[in-house]
Give the backbone structure.
Amino acid sequence: AVRAASMKAYVLLDGTLLAIDRIAADRPFYSGKHHRHGINVQVIAGPFGELLWASPALPGAVHDVRAAREHGIVDALDQAGITCWADKGYQGARRTIRVPFRGRWSTLSAGQQAVNRSQAKIRALVERAMATLKTWRLLRKLRCSTTRITATVQAVVVLHQASSAAG
């Protein structure tokens, strides 16, 4: 993934929650933000929103920046010197991961607002990669063992890349 990302001008990083059918006893898989059980998957997309890589699945309660650190995404992008755009969920990562300024819109200066606006336009393309991933009906609500989800997600990424290369 780092080799493919190094050929790009920049990459986009974001996390998504894939819904699973779990019971309330499975506390680690419950995402308080989304109010449902799910799996956290980190996605690296190219500058045009193409899906480059998806991480192994982690429980839905794991925060995005923690998931990126656990998968080594932060260190790999930093060591390779690849510029990466991410959302506010990655505050405190490292210098190659660019995040918007924090604060309420009214408390930010005009320059900070302009920077956040331009970053939002760039980061909007990662939503295309997320939509591509979630168009696979299999991933809309996973009903399999949580140990099989990583292989399922990575198979979907490979199939998507193969279909987009052929077309």
Observations:
- Strands lie at 11-19, 30-31, 36-45, 51-54, 58-59, 84-85, 97-98.
- The chain has one domain: 2-160.
- The mean pLDDT is 87.
